[in-house]
């Protein structure tokens, strides 16, 4: 142990003399032992997570702090944090061979502190009684636990009643019928994987992940694919995405998504008209823009709430795979927060979670059936 080796280095004036056991000295005669107890607890990170008997090493307790402190430090109120403890507690308590454990409660606070601040702050680790290295390990554990539950919280509705409610929510925004979701891409900056790999370099010369997301009229995410390399154009991401397969094989029934002009028009994806000419075409484009704006507001809300994604503290310092998981974990937390009524739209935040790289690039469709569907929509609802 580091403590025993450190004791040997303190010399005869502080440590035991030859042949003398530690137990033979009174506490008053060996004050250096108690003085070293705290640094051992803080610095020996290998003893911190999980462990036989599930003994915890925490100085922080939820009941000891105010709601205002939790919101200002970790970004979420007590009820939300308690829900996460119930949701993830069993996963975060899985035993290992370690002799000590950090409680699920503390692991969740450490992760929320990182997601909402964007940095492993020493003061945050001090507040909950763990080292910065242990905070990093807690973030990894909580991230994987949330990713495992992504399909539980991010999905399209399947029953007809919920689908109808989804369409009505969008129709109430600007009179656009049949909308099942609005889709767009956003870039999240990451560190360069290596000097040779240019697949993550986007059109602005930055390393990023291009994340394809769909949301409903309230900003609840219905789909989130966070792993695409930043060099891929939005239309290419959509072509290769699971979302396309999902709509072409399962969900393309009496409805469509709305996408901007960086995507190709499809029978299940309505895009704006490049050059509107008639009053009906102008009305269609205006309704399309007002409805599609929901996804842009959702992106602003996510990066405002989860500062690890907005670039204000720098890029995500992880591999593309781990960065993708962190983004997805934040998406899961976003949906859970909306379920708990934390749904106030946020003002735009400064940062580098970029909007679509192709937002000014107009894509023209060669799908005649898709053009027919859009023209029928124009004649039926906007003429």
TrEMBL record:
<dbReference type="InterPro" id="IPR027806">
    <property type="entry name" value="HARBI1_dom"/>
</dbReference>
<protein>
    <recommendedName>
        <fullName>Putative nuclease HARBI1</fullName>
    </recommendedName>
</protein>
<dbReference type="GO" id="GO:0046872">
    <property type="term" value="F:metal ion binding"/>
</dbReference>
<keyword id="KW-0378">Hydrolase</keyword>
<dbReference type="GO" id="GO:0005634">
    <property type="term" value="C:nucleus"/>
</dbReference>
<dbReference type="Pfam" id="PF13359">
    <property type="entry name" value="DDE_Tnp_4"/>
</dbReference>
<dbReference type="GO" id="GO:0005737">
    <property type="term" value="C:cytoplasm"/>
</dbReference>
<feature type="domain" description="DDE Tnp4">
    <location>
        <begin position="183"/>
        <end position="335"/>
    </location>
</feature>
<keyword id="KW-0963">Cytoplasm</keyword>
<dbReference type="GO" id="GO:0004518">
    <property type="term" value="F:nuclease activity"/>
</dbReference>
<keyword id="KW-0540">Nuclease</keyword>
<dbReference type="InterPro" id="IPR045249">
    <property type="entry name" value="HARBI1-like"/>
</dbReference>
<comment type="similarity">
    <text>Belongs to the HARBI1 family.</text>
</comment>
<keyword id="KW-0539">Nucleus</keyword>
<dbReference type="InterPro" id="IPR026103">
    <property type="entry name" value="HARBI1_animal"/>
</dbReference>
<keyword id="KW-0479">Metal-binding</keyword>
<comment type="function">
    <text>Transposase-derived protein that may have nuclease activity. Does not have transposase activity.</text>
</comment>
<dbReference type="GO" id="GO:0016787">
    <property type="term" value="F:hydrolase activity"/>
</dbReference>
């Amino acid at each position: 142990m580091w403590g025993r080796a450190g004791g040997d280095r303190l010399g005869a004036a502080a440590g035991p003399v030859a042949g003398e056991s530690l137990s033979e000295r009174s506490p008053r005669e060996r004050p250096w032992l108690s003085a070293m107890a705290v640094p051992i607890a803080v610095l020996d990170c290998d003893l911190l997570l999980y462990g036989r008997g599930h003994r915890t090493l925490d100085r922080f307790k939820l009941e000891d702090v105010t709601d205002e402190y939790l919101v200002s430090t970790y970004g979420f109120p007590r009820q939300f944090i308690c829900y996460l403890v119930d949701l993830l507690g069993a996963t975060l308590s899985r035993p290992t061979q370690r002799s000590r454990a950090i409680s699920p409660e503390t692991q969740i606070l450490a992760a929320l502190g990182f997601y909402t601040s964007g940095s492993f702050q020493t003061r945050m680790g001090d507040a909950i009684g763990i080292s910065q290295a242990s905070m990093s390990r807690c973030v990894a554990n909580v991230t994987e636990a949330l990713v495992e539950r992504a399909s539980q919280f991010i999905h399209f509705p399947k029953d007809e009643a919920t689908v109808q409610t989804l369409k009505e929510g969008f129709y109430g925004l600007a009179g656009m019928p049949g909308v099942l979701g609005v889709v767009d891409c956003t870039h999240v900056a990451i560190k360069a994987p290596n000097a040779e790999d240019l697949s993550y370099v986007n059109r602005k010369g930055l390393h990023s992940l291009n994340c394809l997301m769909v949301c409903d009229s309230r900003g609840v995410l219905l789909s989130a694919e966070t792993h695409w390399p930043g060099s891929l154009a939005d239309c290419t991401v959509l072509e290769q995405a699971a979302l396309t397969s999902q709509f072409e094989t399962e969900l393309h029934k009496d409805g469509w998504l709305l996408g901007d002009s960086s995507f190709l028009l499809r029978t299940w994806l309505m895009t704006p008209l490049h050059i509107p000419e008639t009053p009906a075409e102008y009305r269609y484009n205006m309704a399309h823009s007002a409805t599609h704006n929901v996804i842009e507001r959702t992106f602003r809300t996510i990066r405002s709430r989860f500062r690890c994604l907005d670039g204000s503290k720098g890029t995500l310092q992880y591999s593309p795979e781990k960065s993708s998981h962190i983004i997805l974990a934040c998406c899961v937390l976003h949906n859970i927060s909306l379920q708990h009524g934390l749904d106030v739209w946020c003002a735009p935040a400064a940062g580098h979670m970029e909007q679509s790289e192709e937002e000014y690039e107009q894509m023209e469709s060669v799908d005649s059936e898709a053009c027919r569907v859009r023209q029928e929509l124009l004649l039926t609802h906007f003429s």
